[in-house]
Specification:
Blueprint: H1 2-16, H2 18-22, H3 29-50, H4 61-88, H5 90-97, H6 100-111, H7 118-135, H8 145-167, H9 173-195, H10 207-227, H11 234-240, H12 243-255, H13 262-288, H14 292-299
Length: 306
């Protein structure tokens, strides 16, 4: 479980740096998504080939369908998100996008039979308020109906990605990441071919940023993210998911010298506090439960008499 928490948090920090790297790339948003999924999926496939795990590691049956659906949802989510960035701005798009964890948390009792506890709800509401405050400075108030539709669709697709991935959480992390990224790549490729946007050019000085985004932030990041699902609940993924926008703001302040307003500092504190509150109570409940070992003597049959 500790390993899963470390993987999840590390992946969210990597994802939070996506905007920092993308700021150095002048390509259209769909081209950036295409390249990051291509490079990331190529890395995962090469790892599987080097380990001689193909095709034995590939999932079958329901797991295969769930991971393919998750990958398609991931690609669609990124396409809608970057389109929303262009039309309504980063702030409004982010607030719509990060409603996805709310959807996951609401559906988790029905889809995964996870109990929705008081500490989960309180911690999640605190985190949500913090996310709104963190992004409040970037709201520009403008935009279009299509831009808002794209923002909400990015959230719906992101929630679908998490749900389908969670349903296949028994699959090895490298194999699941490879399949999801490959599926996502082909979806974006078909979308760009339909739009006729495949004739883009890459400046020589942008290759370093593109490779970093594809190999580390996408390939490694997706492996850490999806491989953590087997050890954490869907509600934990929802709550800790807000560390991504928090890390984005902190990294922007540290690396791009963007100033942090007091309201953003308060929002960051609420995100961390809400996440820690929710998870600390979850761990306390686990520790308070009697173990099978301690309960075993009570389950033994009494010795025969005579």
């Amino acid at each position: 479980m500790k390993s899963s928490y470390v993987k999840l948090i590390a992946s969210l920090i990597l994802f939070g740096s996506n905007g920092i790297i993308a700021a150095h790339i002048t390509l259209p948003s769909d081209a950036i998504v295409l390249l990051r999924t291509l490079i990331g999926s190529a890395l995962m496939v090469c790892v599987l080939i080097a380990a001689r795990r193909l095709p034995a590691c590939l999932p079958k049956g329901a797991d295969l369908l769930h991971l393919a659906a998750s990958g398609a949802a991931m690609g669609a989510s990124w396409i809608f998100l970057y389109e929303a960035y262009r039309l309504v701005g980063v702030g409004i798009s982010s607030l719509a996008y990060y409603c996805a964890p709310i959807m996951v948390m609401i559906l988790s009792p029905f889809l995964f039979k996870e109990r929705l506890t008081f500490s989960n709800v309180v911690g999640f509401c605190t985190v949500l308020v913090g996310a709104v405050l963190v992004n409040a400075q970037t709201l520009d108030g403008g935009g279009s109906a299509w831009g808002m539709f794209c923002g909400w669709m990015s959230a719906i697709m992101h929630a679908a990605m998490v749900i389908f991935s969670k349903k296949a959480d028994r699959v090895d992390g490298v194999a699941s990441s490879a399949l999801q990224l490959v599926t996502s790549f082909f979806l974006v490729l078909l979308f760009m071919a339909w739009k006729g946007d495949l004739g883009f050019r890459i400046a020589p000085d942008e290759w370093g940023w593109i490779l970093t985004l594809g190999l580390i932030n996408t390939g490694l990041g997706c492996y850490l993210y999806f491989s953590s699902f087997g050890g954490v609940s869907a509600q934990t993924v929802a709550v800790l998911g807000y560390l991504e926008p928090l890390s984005a703001v902190i990294l922007a302040a540290a690396l791009l010298h963007e100033s942090l307003a007091p309201i953003q500092v308060v929002g960051g504190a609420l995100i961390l506090g809400g996440a820690l509150f929710s998870e600390s109570f979850a761990r306390a409940r686990l520790k308070s439960r009697p173990s099978i070992t301690r309960a075993a003597p009570a389950l033994r049959k009494p010795p025969r008499q005579g």
